[in-house]
Amino acid sequence: MSFRWTCPYCNHKCTIGDKNFDYQTHSFGLSNKYKNKLGLKSIVIVCPNAECEEITINSYLYKSTNYSEYPYTEPDNQNDYIHKWTLLPHSHAKPFPSYIPEPILNDYNEACAISDLSPKASATLARRCLQGMIRDYWEITDTTLYKEINALEGKVTEQVWESLNAVREIGNIGAHMEKDINVIVDVESDEAKILIEMLEILFEEWYIARHERDSKLSRIQQIRDHKKAIKVQ
């Protein structure tokens, strides 16, 4: 078997085959609460990039699709699991260039590291990371993130502006208790990861795009200066 895959360590896009992929399933019953046989499936992938070769390990807990008296049978839908654990890497953070300020990357990396363990805390860190980007990239500083985002209206697309407000509002769930403490508003793991994906979009569209543009413009100026120097000779 073979499939397309992107390494979470080096972001290398590749095709994974039998040389880089292995899995094992341990099935058991043991009078568990699901009243059926369960299977713990571990999947190991080794990055084929010679400069990386890092190990990715995920484990999945499945409930057998057969009755308990029959042998364990894994569900056809691989996403139909009871629980999933990412053992390696410890975080799904992507590598980003060092010209993005370290405090901003630290908040991003921490948000990624706890998105499964504490989605609300992850959302709060995503909110903090967003505020750091607005203050650094746009040089907008005010008393609240709400005011800082409002100052961006008209400077970014309406869709981006609405998304910035969404990150702020969802991050507030983790940062502030509801007025009625009996009202429980949770942030799910997949929702926290969507906020993180928004941060990644902003890294690309703000910092990386600016760096690449500046590099190209600088190269043009270097070419001009080189041509001028030739004329002087």
Automatic annotation (TrEMBL):
InterPro entries: DUF4145 (IPR025285). Residues 109-200 form the DUF4145 domain. It comes from the Bacteria. This is DUF4145 domain-containing protein. It comes from Acinetobacter venetianus (strain ATCC 31012 / DSM 23050 / BCRC 14357 / CCUG 45561 / CIP 110063 / KCTC 2702 / LMG 19082 / RAG-1).
